[in-house]
Amino acid sequence: MGVDIDGVIEVRERDGRWRTALGLPESALRRDRHARECLFGYGGALQVERPLFDRRGIPDDASEDVPAYDELSHSHSYATWAEVAAVDWDGPLCDGPDGNHVGEWRPGPDGELVLHAVPGTPIEVLDAAEELFGEDLMPHEWPPGGEVPWNGAVYRPVTWTPRMFVPPDGDWAPVWTAMRDRAAVHGDENVRLVVWFG
Predict the structure, then answer these.
(1) What is the pLDDT confidence band of residue 44, given thresholds at 50, 70 and 90?
(2) What is the distance between the alpha carbons of residues 172 and 191, in angstroms, rounded to a whole number?
(3) Cα separations (Å) of 76 from 14, 47, 116, 195?
(4) What is the pTM of this model?
(5) Residues in Cβ contact with 171 at an 8 Å cutoff, skipping those fewer than 6 apart
């Protein structure tokens, strides 16, 4: 049984009170554990060390549509549009490369290598790495600049970034657009996303 995400986008009115402007768009309600972990620290499969908006709790002045903490509504977090707009989507979420995954780079339209996927390290890549580096090493142990060509791709150690799992033009784009549009009217600090799980 999976855990669902829910949330609202709030706007702070001139009287200082927050009201719900709209609920989360359908695209953000998917059960995407990696996106949830990168954004809010909920999930745990990637072992992200610095989620963007890590389980901050319920804002003291949340609108009435934000449920209180209980077994059906938990792990709340929030972020203003000012914070979302300032995110470095290519900034590291961890201090070093992941030990179990690799970046799979393939030639793009112009022939330059581009990140295609971030799979668990295929056993064939580990075998090729052992042959290349002379010892049995996991990706985070490969020598600096180490990469392994295999099956038409190049595999490299990878340090998680938000763009890998929550690209700004991906499933959460409608959330960011809705927040940006309201911030243009109300101000960046007066538009807030509040989420919870249950």
Answers:
(1) confident
(2) 16
(3) 25, 19, 32, 6
(4) 0.89
(5) 27, 28, 30, 32, 35
